[in-house]
Write a structure and sequence with these properties.
The chain is α+β, with helices and mostly antiparallel strands. About 55% of the residues lie in helices and about 15% in strands. The chain has helices spanning about 1-20, 20-30, 40-45, 50-60, 80-90, 105-115, 125-135, 150-160, 165-170, 190-200, 220-230; strands spanning about 35, 65-70, 75-80, 115-120, 120-125, 140, 150, 175-180, 185-190, 205-210, 215.
């Protein structure tokens, strides 16, 4: 019984951490996988630097964020991939259409994020789900009794330039599903999802749009995904 009580208390405490809008906003910003300064996060959340510092100290103490110091600068990032996946899953379970964009810039930004974005270290949005579905259709990924990368899938990762042997040796699951908060369907996460994302950037198939999480396919990326996965970016 005490174990259940302790678990309930822990859930309540963690829920309280994310219950504040400013803290939640800063955590969502950090889903881009990069480290931000306290000033950058304060501006993103629209709050004073001193207020942001209080929130960030609380998030660090709760092991939601990790901090790094370089000289006078303090950088913050999500503490782990598990925390990133938790935040994305929480976002996916929020009621749809709760907030309506009020400006053209907000509408444009939201549309770009919905098309393609990074979810910490893997690809999310329409592109992430479409790549996942295409891998399944091409027998690179199976979803029966848990997600598994097939021999064909491992071969495709090697063709992308990923070190599949190193991926096997990590403690992180090779593949896992992550519920997409815009598509409301799962996209590929885990070590394989991270490898796909990093290689897409490295070989120039994707690029970031500005400083946000939004990304886009480049012309070579569109051609490659059409050729290798029969995926058409223009279908969006």
């Amino acid at each position: 019984m005490s174990v259940r009580v302790d678990a309930a208390s822990g859930i309540a405490e963690l829920a309280a951490i994310f219950a504040d809008r400013s803290r939640a906003s800063m955590c969502v910003a950090l889903l881009d996988g990069r480290a931000w300064t306290a000033g950058e996060l304060a501006r993103y959340a629209g709050i004073a630097r001193s207020t942001a510092t209080e929130h960030l100290n609380l998030l660090v103490a709760a092991d939601v964020l990790a901090e790094e110091r370089q000289g006078r600068h303090r950088y913050l990032r999500l503490a782990s991939t598990e925390i990133a996946e938790l935040i994305e899953t929480l976002a996916a379970h929020t009621p749809p259409g709760r907030e309506h964009p009020r400006t053209l810039r907000t509408v444009t930004t939201h549309a770009a994020l919905a098309r393609a974005r990074t979810c910490y270290d893997h690809i999310a949005g329409w592109l992430g789900v479409a790549v996942t579905d295409a891998m399944t259709d091409q027998d690179m990924l199976t979803r029966h009794d848990g997600w598994t990368l097939t021999a064909s899938g491992l071969g495709w990762l090697r063709e992308l330039g990923a070190d599949t042997e190193a991926l096997r040796q990590t403690r992180r699951p090779m593949v896992r599903s992550c519920l997409d908060w815009t598509e409301r369907r799962p996209h590929l996460a885990g070590a394989a999802g991270a490898a796909v994302c990093s290689r897409f950037f490295e070989i120039g198939w994707t690029e970031r749009i500005g400083s946000d999480r939004a990304i886009r396919l480049t012309a070579p990326g569109e051609a490659a995904l059409l050729d290798q996965l029969n995926l058409r970016w223009s279908d969006l």
